[in-house]
């Protein structure tokens, strides 16, 4: 079977977790809501032809890898986000480009704020 170079964009949007990330003791004790968005560029040619999950980048696995990393406490969003990227890339070497955005909802900033976010891309 001849396959082309069909590049696809897989997006996992607004995965929500409750976790304990932050530099301040209160954040480590009380916790907070976090949203994670992931954008993955990958070659979808084979999966598009075969219609088989075995030939696709399984986004259920991406979710599980992300959850596993979010459940491990970090002080900084930079550290958490980098761990998510490393975990996904090590499981799916066929990834062409990976972008991960982590948002801490209602951060303890002394004022009203929807969220603070960090995006890393490799």
From TrEMBL:
Pathway: Cofactor biosynthesis; tetrahydrofolate biosynthesis; 2-amino-4-hydroxy-6-hydroxymethyl-7,8-dihydropteridine diphosphate from 7,8-dihydroneopterin triphosphate: step 3/4. GO terms for molecular function: dihydroneopterin aldolase activity. The keyword Transcription regulation does not apply. InterPro entries: Dihydroneopterin_aldolase, FolB_dom, GTP-CH-I_C/QueF. Residues 10-120 form the Dihydroneopterin aldolase/epimerase domain. Keywords: Folate biosynthesis, Lyase. Catalyzes the conversion of 7,8-dihydroneopterin to 6-hydroxymethyl-7,8-dihydropterin. Its EC number is 4.1.2.25. Signal peptide: none annotated. The keyword Lyase applies. Belongs to the DHNA family. It comes from Carboxylicivirga linearis. It catalyses: 7,8-dihydroneopterin = 6-hydroxymethyl-7,8-dihydropterin + glycolaldehyde. SMART domains: FolB. Gene3D superfamilies: 3.30.1130.10. Pfam families: FolB. It comes from the Bacteria. This is 7,8-dihydroneopterin aldolase.
């Amino acid at each position: 079977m001849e396959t082309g170079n069909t590049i696809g964009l897989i997006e996992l949007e607004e995965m929500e977790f409750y976790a304990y990330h932050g530099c301040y003791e209160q954040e480590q004790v009380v916790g907070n809501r976090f949203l994670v968005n992931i954008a993955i560029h990958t070659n979808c040619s084979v999966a598009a032809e075969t219609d088989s999950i075995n030939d696709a980048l399984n986004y259920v696995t991406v979710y599980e890898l992300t959850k596993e990393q979010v459940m491990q406490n970090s002080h900084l969003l930079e550290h958490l986000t980098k761990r998510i990227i490393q975990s996904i890339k090590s499981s799916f070497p066929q990834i062409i480009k990976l972008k991960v955005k982590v948002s801490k909802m209602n951060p303890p900033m002394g004022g009203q704020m929807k969220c603070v976010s960090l995006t890393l891309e490799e």
